[in-house]
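SEQUENCE-TO-STRUCTURE ENTRY
===========================

Backbone structure tokens: a row of integers, each naming the local backbone shape at its residue.

Task: work out the structure tokens from the sequence, keeping to the layout shown below.
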Amino acid sequence: MEFKKEFDELESFEKTWLYLSNLRPVLNARGFFHDATEQFRIPCEPEKNSDVVIKFRAVRNNVDRVSLVVDGVPYVMDKTGNDELFDYYTFEIHVGEDALHYYFEVVLGKTVVYYTQLGAHTDLNQNYNFTIYPGFKTPEWVRGTVIYQIYVDRFYNGDSSNDVVDREYVYIGEHVRHVDNWSKYPASMGVREFYGGDLEGVIQKMDYLEELGIQCIYFNPLFVSPSNHKYDIQDYDYIDPHFGVIVDDGGEPLSEDNLDNSQATKYIKRVTGLANLEASNALFARLVEEAHRRGIKVIIDGVFNHCGSFNKWLDRERIYEGSEDFDKGAYISKDSPYKDFFQFNNHDGWPYNGSYNGWWGHDTLPKLNYEGSRNLEEYILEIGRKWVSPPYNVDGWRLDVAADLGSSEEYNHSFWRKFRDTVKAANPNAVILAEHYGDCHSWLRGGEWDTIMNYDAFMEPITWFLTGMEKHSDSFNYDKVGNPAYFFDSMRHNMSRMGGSPTRISMNELSNHDHSRFLTRTNRTVGRTESRGPRAAEDNIDKAVFMEAVVIQMSWPGAPTIYYGDEAGLCGWTDPDNRRTYPWGHEDAELIDFHKKIIAVHRGNPALIDGSFKSIYGEYNVIAFGRFKGDNKAVTVINNNNTERYLELDVWECGINNDEMLLQAICTSEMGFSTDCRVYKIKSGKLRITMPPLSGTILVV
């Protein structure tokens, strides 16, 4: 009974090993390992109708039999090799064209243990079986790639001649305006404010991005749009000249009392003039070429669920009505070629029919009517192909609210299969990365998305563990702060729902344009800019906790993604305060230097790019995990306590042998960070380390 009491008090991720180790004979399940990397599945992404070698690891001379169970059929695996710590079992299977599901059954005496994506358990849960989707290929270049997200209007103003001018047009009932003070906090309803950031500014700062060590730029939407966020697309065929080039200017802003965009002659000339549109596309092509010259990839944002009320297909603002270069919009005329792009509820409402369906009821965001228009589907598929092809050659799409597209789940999946086929035919190495919250499994089975923005298996668990804050800073949860069971269990569950290949290329962010800045979350304060004011987002922040988060980010499976300015100490509540301008001339130099150093550590260790992952240890406010690939191994340790912690960690689980040396690559604490080399010699399979308060470290072999 005493053992039962102690067992119940343990965190769940510790229970399996302790339970199994108290059985007789002793089966050391902590040594079991298999994953979907090329170390344990060869090849890791097999073609259809091909052979695959499945490999399993167990402690040397510790098991009687390992069976691979494939779709319910068991196959006894052969012991084909060993090293100082482990025996390796292999079996070759043939995959056809359909998904193949498998798990492992390990036997020692009368003890039977099952191994799935959740690890070793005495009870079998086949919801977490490993799966092979034959023919599912994800771009190798994304594995571990360091991505940098740029919200263009707030990054850098490289060309003032394309700036939005005061009263250039009306957006959501009020005139837009240009912000002269680059350092001004965004207003609580700041979608009409424009600071002037543009693509020329990105080009001018390309040296900075290269020196930082980033390998890919993800741009928030770039296409013609009336908002600064540009998630209400006006024209998918062209880059917005306010981000691009205005070679043919003219017209006048609206007067103070004029709210009629059909008379916004300056805006109309700028965004419908073909000379400006084509010059802006050419500038973007030059930017991508310059990025590629430096070895930097480019991902752009695709907003295909809805467009904007300014869109040329609808033209509710009557911007295109008098143009000879554009067809009549569906709002203007019932004879518009785009009429079936939208669903109208009043079939006799023309001209100027405002009865179209809006996404979540927003008339500024018309819902696109895919099921009712084959032409719309073909148009958007062509947009998908166009921008990954010459002369633009972008390296992938991030898909906004991708699960919402269409009016049915059936059509949604059908469209994304067509989108994938179209994009991959044009550029096989283009990544298709979706914004998604919740279970993403049904889209990641080989025929639709490559991966997702990783909220559930990255941003949220890390935020809860280190800060206790919800990702918008809307609530604080004491029970989740420092809770290693919640952290590892949620990570395991959500990573298993994603699958091996999507996990290895997932976009792992701490902050982005939709959530509060992580540095602000470290103040453990609930609030938004309208309730507390923007300055409060900077109060009582904790850089040490932020650096702990970056240590995890740069050593976790996936593509670590930096939201512009995070590396410079930018704070902010959730949208729109998270969209502050990059603080040129006022950067936190220490944080920038830290990011340069830790990115170099990440890029310099293959294990951190696409190695296998294993959790090692957890207690209140302390976690440790390992990555390993061949001879390169890494261990990450986090102490989020306000006190020092001495730890003994079983690093043998990551294949680190006795007498091997672990070298400290980087460490962080309340005092800052250091790359001074410390050496830890492994004895009895353990790393013995003292972690300062609020610290993180990456150790490598």
